[in-house]
């Protein structure tokens, strides 16, 4: 009788114990995920930065990597985004806050592999400037400059 009771008791505990283990592991995964939230780097006040792209940055899924910068732009701003590097073939992308591509440039008008993007901003807000390497290039040092163009 004691053996039968022990068998039923262990079966009755099996389901709640399994559920508890699953819930605790889910909480652990959620905590680990939340500690690595996406947080683009804010451009300094002069809208110019020298930085480095590496395999520690955002994987692009095409063998390369990307780094994101946040910049606040206003309706009607005409901007030039200049991305240069001696270490890799650059691509610059301007993304709206909802993730859609506003504009993108691979090679600048000078025939080099540096990127130069011109665009007019339609809506106020924080935009993302994505710096990435073309193809499977590992990266290296680069310079990013955002200029608001003014009428003369």
SSE arrangement:
Layout: H1 2-34, E1 41-42, E2 48-53, E3 58-59, E4 65-73, E5 78-84, E6 90-95, E7 101-105, E8 115-120, E9 125-133, E10 140-149
Parallel strand pairs: 1-4
Antiparallel strand pairs: 2-10, 3-4, 4-9, 5-8, 5-10, 6-7, 6-9
Indicate the proportion of strand residues: 35-45%
The best one-word shape is elongated
Number of helices: 1
Sketch the topology as an H/E string, one letter per element.
HEEEEEEEEEE
| Strands, total number | 10
Radius of gyration: 25 Å
Distance separating the two termini: 97 Å
Summed over residues and divided by their number, the pLDDT gives a mean of 81
Percent in helix: 10-25%
Main beta-sheet annotation: 6 strands, mixed
Q: Give the helix/strand class.
A: alpha+beta
Would you identify the regions where 5 or more consecutive residues have pLDDT less than 50? 25-35
